[in-house]
Amino acid sequence: MRIAALIVSAIQDLRETKGSTTKKIIAYIRCASDLPEKRVKRQVKAALRRGVEYGILRRYRGHYFLPIGDEVDRANRIAVRFARLPSPSRPSAKSRNVGLRKTPATRDRKKGRRRFANRSGNSVAEGKSPRKSRSLPFSTTTTATSFVGIPEANDISAE
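The line above is the sequence of H15 domain-containing protein; the predicted structure tokens follow.
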């Protein structure tokens, strides 16, 4: 049975008022099927993301629920089209390992780059002196005493 159908049945059977969380859906599917836990988690998360994207499911604050009213007809049409799609076939083991092999020479070059980058980064950091503050030293005079000799300041206080 497809994982999308299991998710829809899980949301219907759990009957949560605010919607079902990912953890509850995964727990329900784990009880209903014999699939391993890691595989179920990965497939459920991907199917929930796709379901929301295509409009089959609705999501609010991490809770998933089925659409209501006119949205149900639209979701059913999308779900039927989605069910007709062929399931993705797994690539063969030979095709997966073709470009992934690393020769010892490429490994050594990458290690050398990392080592060189670390050395240069540390030497630059050690050579820098701490930054001096540019602020002026604290003045002992207050702002009120600095206006004493200015005639404009005396005019303001006289009024």
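Note on the example: Residues 3-84 form a domain with the Arc Repressor Mutant, subunit A fold (CATH 1.10.10). The longest strand covers residues 58-60.
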